[in-house]
Amino acid sequence: MKAVMIIYNIAHTEKVEYILERLDIKGYTQWDNVKGTGTFTGAPHLGTHTWPEINGAIITFVEDNLVQPLTEAVKKIDNVNKEIGIRAFVWDIQQSV
Question: pTM of the entire structure?
Answer without folding.
Answer: 0.92
